[in-house]
Amino acid sequence: MSPARRRVGAPKPPKTGPSARGRAPDGPARRTSPGGGMSLEHAGCVVSTDAGLLDVDFICAALAGSYWARDRPRHVVEQSIRNSLCFGLYEKQGGRQVGFARVVTDGATFSWLCDVVIDGSRRGMGLGKFLMSFVVAHPQVGGTVCLLGTRDAHGLYEKFGFARSEQMRRPPSPGRPGPPCQA
After folding, report:
1. Is 108 part of any domain?
2. Residue 109 falls within a domain, yes or no?
3. Within a domain: residue 7?
4. How many Cα neighbours within 13 Å face the side chain of 172?
5. Which mean pLDDT values do the consecutive 10-residue runs of the chain (183 residues) have?
6. Strand, coil or helix: what is 124?
7. Residue 148 is part of which domain span?
8. E strands, 24-96, where?
9. pTM, rounded to two decimals
10. How far is CA 179 from the centre of its chain?
11. Where do the DSSP E strands lie in 26-107?
12. How many folded domains does the chain comprise?
């Protein structure tokens, strides 16, 4: 399924089984899924870059509960997903999406990590760390300078090599949708 034709509603269960392609350094199995994405599974959840699994309803609801994207319209969320490398976090049993991260990248020199969210009922279980371990190891992200903005999760991101730094910022042009992306 192309990123422009994402399903809305519950995602199909993540693919598991005999398609294992080896093991990640910390033990979880890496898999390729039919949609061309990579996945990593651990602790009852799977992370996948398969755009066909994304639950846009979950993503919109999770972002609406954030301080950085609470007023972001659905059509803007959908467009941002189409134009980004997206990571979904799903329960292995039933496939319900419980986390999301989005990366804007050229795949060679620069990445911007944004829209990192974990379902409120699943916070405090290490799933943010699990999701981030997959994001920073992804081939299109790991070799790039990666930036993000956060107001409250510095400790989490510092564990993955992010350092606090001063940044300049230009707001969107008048009449253009979308607040700046922050994680």
Report:
1. yes
2. yes
3. no
4. 8
5. 37 34 35 50 85 97 95 96 97 95 96 95 88 94 91 83 82 69 50
6. coil
7. 29-158
8. 29-32, 38-42, 45-48, 85-91
9. 0.73
10. 18
11. 29-32, 38-42, 45-48, 85-91, 97-105
12. 1
